[in-house]
Amino acid sequence: MEKLIIETPSRIHLGFLELDNNSDRLFGSLGLTITNFETKLLLKKSKKINVVCDDINQTERIKRIITLLNKKIDFPSFEIKVLKSIPSHSGLGSGTQLALSIATLISTFADINIPTDELAIILDRGKRSGIGIESFKNGGFIVDGGKIKDSTKIPPILFNSNWPENWKLILILDNSLRGIHGLKEKQEFKNIKKISSELSKQNCRSLCLKILPSIIENRFKEFCSGMQEIQNNTARIFSKAQGGRFTSKKISMVFDFIKHKKKICYGQSSWGPTGYIMLENESKREEIFNEISIFIRKKFIKDLEMVRIEGKNNGFILK
């Protein structure tokens, strides 16, 4: 095979079900695969391994991924070129998509059949959430079941549904910030102290009695109610680490502006700073998009970028 191209989607992480470190099973994540932000890589034969990328930091990440893979599998030399990438440390899952994209390209190029979940374990992905891995594989709206403490297994996927086509989203990016990541992220999870069991009970009630039946029945209002409850609980737990409910004070101002609007929900993806707004239909999206645009101009808020996005119901494409 002379060359391969892979395209993978991004995702937003919509909150955790259980964050009490004393619980036997931790985390449990909700997420949605989205459009507009993709990783796209080209791999072709070469006399030596070479990485072509404009970003020095990303180049180093790619080299580390190749080194990890080379400890487990043998492969011929190649050149890998980054054609498009998801913004890093923005809450869009760029690390998992990059790692799995490279691993899939290399294993396919070497004609070695390794399941995606096994590749994820080799590359140390899925330590807390299985959302990014499932987004890579299949897309959709996803719920995983968390993981037993100290387990090396990837969290099991409990639910994966197509995102209703009429439900729309706005993504808000703060281009002046990057979210918590790396060693600081690991430390912040360790810093979480005992959390009331009522919190996880409320999250699970919201999931089972509002979110899941509502996405199946296409009942947007009830879906939003459940999502907002989980997002609010997650934001409260991480507020100390983030310096507030949301990493970006600018996006927090936008959310304060829209929080009394009906039939919408909003929140932060992962550690942010990226925020999202979910809306019932295209008309509502345009209404809110225009109102926020005017608000941003009036308040002279800089570095915010709004993007109309859709839910994406398929995973990676390899060709």
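Second entry:
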Amino acid sequence: MKSLRLFGTAFGLALGLTAIIALTASGLDHFRIIGPTKPFAYPWRLVDPTWMTHFTAWLGYALHNLGAWWIIAAARRQKPGYTEKMRWFNGAMLGLHLVGFGLHWLQSRLWYDGLAQDVPEITALGSVALMLMVILILETPRRGLFLGKKLRFDKRFLRIIREYHGYLFTWALIYTFWYHPMAGTWGHLIGFFYMFVLLGQSVLLFHRGHTNKWWTLSLEMLVLPHGVLVALFQGNALWPMFGFGFAAMFLLTQMYGLGWTRPIYGLLWGVFLVSTMGVYAWMGRLAKIHEILRIPILDYAVVFLLYLLFLGIAKLLPKNPQEAPPV
């Protein structure tokens, strides 16, 4: 019950912070931005940035990211175990994220630009995508990787993922958070809300809620409405690719480990196939239905590429790994 209250609080706080961005976004209207040009050329960048716009964005990001890493490292050194209690590192992480929000809000109003002025958009998209792909590896021992089948990954590989995923995930989220100015478009607001909910998971390090399967599944699955809604608000006809692509990942991997029966799996597959065919037929895009395979293919490809990379350097790693708790 305590965990449920925490999850509700996380969603409520995410909504509140997103509302602040929405209600104050008009304060950015006086800035001259590049605007839409070509794909993957981020529009929300200043036409005439100064050294201060670059400096403040990178300084805020660095302080936020390094602070989160320090809290994770300090908590791990204590080996606190998992409880229902919120401890100093949980409060510290929450406080850090709220301070980071305040700094970025102020930085956006004074200088507008985030990290986007200096790094390509694909880095922001790729960082969160990589996080979701690593989650597939992290959850493999519990639910398998494909149709419930558990792959025998090297124990050292799983140990590395368990020990260090917290550092990777906080980097991915904080980097993406500082990449964007706090603009008030629907795409920005939807993205910031999803990011805030995901950051709530970092607040729950070494809390039992951190490993609650329904909570973690909801964090993964929120990418589906996020991808669909952002595509719709941008007038992008690719929204079915995101919707059915991420739904396919749920059916192929994420629904296993929940204790459901085969008839339920069959029912969900039936609903998926009928709705996919129906939507693509209604849109007159049946010839493009294969695009829903892009997300699953990319996800599994990256998982195996990471494993192959590990195998390539495995000789440099200890031969007798010890089990480590997730963070």
